[in-house]
Amino acid sequence: MLDFSKVIDRRGTDSYKWDGSDRALGNTECIQMGCADMDFEAAPELVDALRAVVEHKVYGYATLSPEFAQGVVSWYSTRHHVAIKPEWVLHSPRIVVSASVVVRTLSQAGDKVILHTPYYPPLDSATQSQERVAVEPPLVLREDGRFAIDFEQLESIVDESTKLMIFVSPHNPTTRVWTRAELEQLAAFCVKHKLYLFVDEIHCDFTAPGHEFISMLDIKGPIQERLIVVNSAAKSFNIMGCAISYLIIPNDELRHTIEQAFVKAGEEDTNIFGNALMKVAYQKCGYYVDEVNAVINANDEFLREQLPTVFPKAKIIPREGSYLMWLDLRDEFASEQEMQDFLINKAHIFWLEGSHFGSHFDGYARVNIGCPRATLEEMMRRLRAAKSA
Ligand SMILES: Cc1ncc(COP(=O)(O)O)c(C=O)c1O
Q: Does 146 fall in a domain?
């Protein structure tokens, strides 16, 4: 078992999560729990792979390794029980780049693109920044405290100018791990209305006990002709800074169209560091993902016990996947501003506020629990101190 209890000081490394957020806040007072990367070291096999590249001392252009696609095929087969072909896999530096290229390629200015709120904001930017019309239905809270797709609402908003749906599975920030029945219904909706379906599966390797990730690639039938799945080893192995992701597109014509669009955008090459990581991560480091999942599940249990001692009126949404917790704090604070004032200025903790994820979710907060237990204990200590001040 690797040591996930070690607290590593990431300040001073230009970490987006720590230094970026400190710079935005104008001080270094807060525990940073916003941006979705984890405060854990990478697997030693990945460190060795990077070291080999560094020590070679020539950092020229890289060409994609044949093991890249093979790693994706074997990961989807062994971890997620779905058979894909290596030729379906395309490389992209980042999922947010893929979203932008796909929106530009499969729709025209003025066309509608559906993306549920709450959303990961760059997916919204991919639509809004390209003069498409973002149609953003909210996920709805069911009686059992879980978020769900409102299919009736979807039927009421779709029309002939709707070309694409962007869907996140498992979902960030609600953490929903969609069931097969939900995915099938969504697929049927997209087929019925002739929408392309862009499914972002980057959070697929983290699931809470009792939940199983099902890939949209495993939903048989005509949706496969209109499907673009994007994914990355970045979240699973905590290597986000290495900008390496991929698309899986079963339909030959669609894949060719998207591949050409990447060429036109000048996004043909990979980078030598990410390339080296991809040769190792999916083939040799599955154990790392298992160990991180155990740590996250224990952190989730710890906070589910502890948070109500400070926020008795909070609704802690059941975590189904990812290393995030999604809290409804509307009964604790009169406004989101009051919530942020308490968290940032009094408790010195940075969580991402609900309005960051689009409209309808003011007063919610997303907490990143991909950190050592000691960080969560310090967070609880700060919350208690601020509450009793
Ligand atoms: C749903 C989702 N998609 C994509 C990303 C980022 O992926 P990339 O760094 O490959 O653009 C994130 C990161 O938080 C995410 O939560």
A: yes
Does the predicted model carry a pTM greater than 0.70? yes
Among 251, 267, 284, the domain-final residue is 284
* 322 CA: nearest ligand 1 atom: 16
The residue among 187, 196, 200, 208 whose CA lies nearest residue 235 is 200
Backbone phi, psi, residue 229, to 5°: -100, 135
Quick one: which H or E segment has residue 353?
strand 352-353
Tell whether ligand 1 has an atom less than 6 A from the beta carbon of residue 245: yes
Q: Write the DSSP symbol of residue 170.
A: S
Domain extent for 323: 16-43+287-388
Domain check: are 346 and 218 in the same one? no
Based on the fold, state whether residues 251 and 318 are members of the same structural domain.
Answer: no
**Interval 144-177: pLDDT, tens:** 999 999 999 999 999 999 999 999 999 999 999 9
Please identify, by atom number, the ligand 1 atom nearest to the C-alpha of residue 245: 10
> Please, which pLDDT band fits residue 268 given cuts at 50, 70 and 90?
confident
